[in-house]
Amino acid sequence: MILHILLLIAVVLFSLLAILLRDLLKSAISLAVASIFLSIIFFMMNAPYIAVFEISVVAGLITVLFISTVALVKKEEEVKESKLVNYLFPVFFVLFIIIDIFVMKSLIGRLCVIKGPSPLGNFSQVFWKERTFDLIGQIGIIFAGVFAVIALFRKVNSDKDKDNHE
Amino acid sequence: MSSHWLLYMGFVAALIFIGLYCLLTMRNLIKLLIGVEIIAKGLSLALISTGFVRKNILIAQSLTITFIVIEVAVVATALAIIINIYRHTKSLDIRKLTKLKG
Amino acid sequence: MALTFILVPLVMASLLPLIGKISKRLLPDVLSNIVLLFLLLYTVFVGRQVVILNAGFQQLFWFGEKLNINLALDGFSVFMLLVISLVSFAVGLFSINYMERYGSKSIYYALLLIMIAGMNGLVLATDLFSIYLFLEVAAVASYALVAYGLKHDELEASFKYLMLSAVASAFILISITIIFGFTDSLSLRNIAYGFAVLNSKYVVGFCTALFIMGFGLKAAIVPFHAWLPDAHPSAPAPISAMLSGVLIKVSGIYAMTRIFLNVFGLTPAVSTVLLYLGVISILVGAIIAFNQNDMKRMLAYSSISQIGYVILGIGLGTPLGIIGGLFHLFNHAIFKALLFLNSGAVEMSTGTRALDKMGGLAKRMPITAATSAVASLSIAGVPPLNGFWSKLIIIIALVQAKQYGFATIAVLASVITLWYYLVIQRRAFFGKINDVFANIKDAPFWMSVSMIFLGLLCIAFGILFPMLIKSWVTPASDVLRLSFNYAINFFRF
After folding, report:
1. Which 3 state secondary structure label does DSSP give C73?
2. Which residues of B touch C (CB under 8 A)?
3. Is the pLDDT of residue A162 over 60?
4. Average pLDDT over residues B82-86
5. How far apart are CA C165 and CA C226, in angstroms?
6. Are C159 and B78 inside 8 Å of each other by CB?
7. I want to staple C479 with a disulfide (CB 3.0 to 4.6 A). Which of A69, C76, C277, C403 is the partner?
8. Bridge pairing between strands C60-62 and C71-73
9. Which of B7, B12, B15, B37 is the mutation pick for testing A, counting most A CBs within 10 A?
C-alpha cells in the first residue's frame, strides 16, 4: 500500500515537473517518465496488458510524436511564459491538495455501492467477446486519426504563390 | 474498500487539477497539449483504479485500451494542427491566435 | 440489420483513399452520394417498420449470438437517424460542387463518412462507454474537417475547438468512471436499475453536473458556447451545415437526453437547471447575433439561440414539451443546414461573407435567394412553415406547465429572431446590387438541387406537420416519457 502511494506521488511530481520546465524536450521526457511510473502502478494492480500498452503507446509513441514536432518547429523564438504563473502555482496546488484530502476524508464510509454482473473468463475473452462494439469504434477512431493527419498535411497547390508573398 | 477508492480518486483529482491549470495559464501551444496529456493520464488512472477496487479489472482494461487509442488519435490531430499553425504564424504563442473575435 | 448504419459508411470511408488515387473527382462523388442516399432510404424503410409494427412505441433488439453487439432501434434512435441522414444527404450533394476548390475530395468524403458513422453509432448504442467512444470518433473527424481549408482562421478556430472539446470529453469520462464505480456496470439498463435501487441523490447529482458541463459544451449551451462562433463560420460551408445541423444535436442533446431521461430520471432540480440554461441560451444567442457583420457568424449565434429552445422544451419534461423540443430539433436541423448552404453558395459566387458588402443578390441568384427566404421565414416562426409549429408547441407546453415567465421570453426572442433574419435578407439579397457583383452567376447544379431539396422539406413539413408528429416524433417522445423504467424493462438482451 505504501508503495502504491509513493508511486502515485512520483507520477504527480513528474507531471508537475512537465509543466514547470521551460524547455519543451525536457517536458516531453518528464511526461514519459511519469508514464513509466504510472505503468508500474498498473502492473501492481494486476493489469499487465494496460501496463505494456501504456508504456509502448504513451511513453513511446506519443513522446516520439512530441519530440518530432519540437524538431519541426525548431526555429521559433522562446515563448515567454508568465513568471507570475510559476510563483502562484505551488500556492494553488497546496490549497487544492488540502481541500482534496478534506473532501475525500469526509466521504469515507458514506458511499454505498452495489454489485453488478462480473464477466467470466480471461482478458482476451472479455476484450473480444464482451466489448465487441468497442472494437468497431476503435477501427473508426484509427481511421479518423489517420485521415485527419493526411487531410491536414496534404499539398494545397493553388495557394503556393500567395503563401510566398505573405 | 471504498477508502482505497477515495485515495486513488484523490490522486486523480490532483492530476486533473494540474492539467487544467496548465490549460488555463500556459502560452506555448505544445505546453497546452502536454496539459491535455496529463488529464488523460489522470483519466486512465481513474479507470484502472476503479476497476481494481471493484474487482472488475478485465472490463477496466478493455475500456482503458480503447481510451488510450482515442487519446493517440486526438494528440496526432492536435500536433498536425499545431505544425500548420506554425507554418502560418512562425510562432507557437497562443497570443498570436487572436484574429477571431466578437 | 442495424449494424449497416455504422458499417457501410465506415467501409466506404476506408476504401475512399484508394479510389481517390484512381479517379480524382467522379468516383468519390458518385460513390459517396450513393452511400448517403442508401442510408437515407434505409432509415426511412427501417423507421416505417419500427413505427407500424406497434401503435405507440416499438423497439427492435439486434444482437448476433456469436457477437455481443447490442443495438437499440427504438423511436428516439430512429428519429435521430432520420435527422442525420436527411441533412447528410443534402450536404453530400452540395459538396460535389463546393469542395472543388479545396482539393482532395476523396479524403474529405472519407472524413465526412467517418463522422456520419460515428454519429450513427452514438445513436444506436446502449452502453455508456460506447456512447463516449463514438462521440470521440465524430469529434476527431470534425476537428480535421473544420481545419480543412488550412488557412489561418480555420486553424485557429479548429485548435480552440479541439482544446475545449477535449476538456469536455474528460468531464464526461470522469462521470462515466464514477458511475462505473458505483454500479459496476456500463450498460444503460444496469445503470438505471442500479440507481433506482441505490437511492443516492448526491452521487447522481454530482454525475449530472459533470454531464451537463461535458455535454453542454458539445451542444453549445451558454456558458459553454465559446467555441461555436469561431468554429462554425471558419469551416467550409457544407461542414458548417453538418456541425450546426447535426453534430451539436447528436453529441450534445441526444446523449444528454438519453442519459437524463432514460437512465437517471428527470428530477425537478435537473429540470429547473435545464430550463434556466435554455432561456439564457435563447437570450444570449439572440442578442449577440444582432451586430454581427459576418453572415455565418450571425447564423452560428442563431444556432445557440435555437438550441436553447430545444433544451427548454426537453427540460420541461411534460409530454407536450418533449414533443415540441424534438420537433424543433428536427426543424432546426433542416433550416439551419439550408441557411449555411445558402451562405456557402453566396460565398462561392461573391467571395465575401460580410453583409455590408453585399446587396441585391436576388436578381442574379434567384434560387439561393428563394430558398434563403423560405429558411429565414421558417426559423423566425412564420406560419405555415415548420418553425412556427414547433415554437408554438413549446410555448403552449410552457404555458400549460405554468411557466409564464419562460413563455414570455420565448415569444420575445422569437420576435428578435424574425428581426435579424429580415436584416440578413434585406442586406444580402434585396436592395440595390453592388456593382462589383454585376456578373455573378447562381449556384451550380448540384448545389441548387440540394438547396431546393431542403427548401421543399421545410415547406412540406410545415404543411404536413401532423403526419410528421404522429409517425416520427411521438414514438420518440413516448420512449423518453417512460423515464428509467423504459431502460430497465425494455433493454433486455
Report:
1. strand
2. 5, 12, 16, 20, 23, 29, 32, 36, 39-40, 43, 46-47, 50-51, 53-54, 56, 59-60, 63, 66-67, 70, 73-74, 77-78, 81-82, 84-85, 88-89, 97, 99-100, 102
3. no
4. 92
5. 11
6. yes
7. C76
8. antiparallel
9. B37
